[in-house]
Each structure stands twice: as structure tokens, then as C-alpha cells.
Amino acid sequence: YSTCEHTLARRAREAHMKRFCKAQAIQRRLEEIEVTFRELEKQGIKLEKLLRDENGSPADQQTQWTNQLLYLVQKKNSLMTEESDLMIAVQELKLEQQQGQLDRKLRSYMNKEETLKTPEDHKAEQEILAQLLKVVNERNHLIQIQEEKRLSEL
């Protein structure tokens, strides 16, 4: 292997580890969100029961329960938005990994001497290039979705 190939292999391993750590952090956060969803659901059920069953409660008590319920709904919506963002990040990580793999495959074909390439090599190179373009377009689509979400939140 040349120094360049060693450097590329090392960078690929580093990128893989970085994606792996990020994926683990995302997975942990998704699990935390799931637990929080369940807790919010339980609290919401309790508040709904209180609101339904306590017709004789003072108006300010019912208002307080209603406000608490609205707060829970707002918090749940916020968590759903975060979960959606995390799912997009997961998809982006997968596409990033695919792109890296396809880049390496394409580079191996492109580094091959033109006179030594078989028709199968040319065909494989074109297929990899097409797959790479597809992955790049999918990543671009995810970026557009994130940008649209960001603009709609403003």
C-alpha cells in the first residue's frame, strides 16, 4: 500500500468510528424519548381522569389541570419534533456510510489502469457511479427537508 492508501484507510476508519459514536448517542436519545413519552402519557391519562371525574372541583383547580395537560401536549410535540430530527440524522448517517463505501469502490476502479480494465470493470464503475449519485441526491433531499423544517419553525 502507498502512503496515500494508508491515509485514506485511516480516515475511513476514523469516519466510521465517528459515525458509530454519533449513532450510539442518537439511539440513546431515542430510547430516552420513548421513556419520556410513556411518562407523559401516564401523566396525561391521570390529568384527563381528574378533569372528567372532578366536576365539583373549584374552577381554578380545573384550570390548573387543563394548563398542566396543555403543557404535557406541548412537551410531547416537542419530543416528537426532536425524534423526527433524530430519525433524519440516522438516515443521514446511513447515507454517509454508503457514500464512503461507494467512494472507495469507485476509487479502486478509477485507480486501475484503463488498458487493464475489462468491460465488466467499466460496467461496474458506471453502476457504482450511478449508486453514488443516487446516495448524494438522497442526502441532498434530507438536507432540503431539514431546511424546510427549520424555516417553518421560524
Features:
bMERB_dom; mainly alpha; 154 residues; F-actin_Monoox_Mical; elongated; single chain; membrane; 3 helices; 90% helix
Description:
Helix content is 90%, strand content 0%. Helix 2 packs antiparallel against helix 3. With 154 residues, it is mostly helical. The chain has one domain. The longest helix has 53 residues. The chain has three helices and no strands. InterPro entries: bMERB_dom, F-actin_Monoox_Mical. It is found in: Membrane. This is MICA1 monooxygenase. One of its GO terms (molecular function) is monooxygenase activity.
SSE arrangement:
Elements lengths: L2 H51 L5 H53 L7 H35 L1
Helix pairs in contact: 1-2, 2-3
Subcellular location: Membrane
InterPro entries: bMERB_dom (IPR022735), F-actin_Monoox_Mical (IPR050540)
Organism: Furnarius figulus
